[in-house]
Every structure is written in structure tokens, then in C-alpha cells.
From TrEMBL:
This is Envelope stress response membrane protein PspB. Pfam families: PspB. The keyword Lipid metabolism does not apply. The chain crosses the membrane at residues 6-27. The keyword Magnesium does not apply. Residues 40-67 form a coiled coil. GO terms for biological process: phage shock; regulation of DNA-templated transcription. Keywords: Coiled coil, Membrane, Transmembrane, Transmembrane helix.
Amino acid sequence: MDEGIIAMLVMPLVIFMIFVAPIWLILHYRSKKQVNQGLSAEEQASLQSLAEQAEKMSDRIQTLEAILDSEAPEWRNRA
């Protein structure tokens, strides 16, 4: 192979290994550390609130489906 072609192939690899790879690894392991620390108190409260809202919505949906089943029994087949 020509030396110019080899240089064109090696230089991007060297630049990647010197600059991109270390930054990538630092950011990767920093995000892993944050995930392993768990949820903060604020995130836990927000998650609890969302779970309660989801439970209320589930109850409402079941109520609405019961009403529709009694008033329009074929509503499920219309979709």
C-alpha cells in the first residue's frame, strides 16, 4: 500500500483514540455511577405521584368501560 493511504487510515484512528475515546469513557462511567446511586428524594416523590395518577386513571378507565359495556355493548367491536 502507498504510505499516503496508510496515513489517511491511521490518523483518524489516532485522533479518535487520543481525544474521543477518553471523553466517551468518562461520560459513560459517569452516567453509570449516577444510575447506580438510585433515585433522589425529589425523583422518588415524583415517581410516587405519577404512580398514584396512573392508578386513578386506571380506575377511571375501568369505570368508563363498565358504563360503555352497559349502555353500548358493541362498542369494543367498532374499532
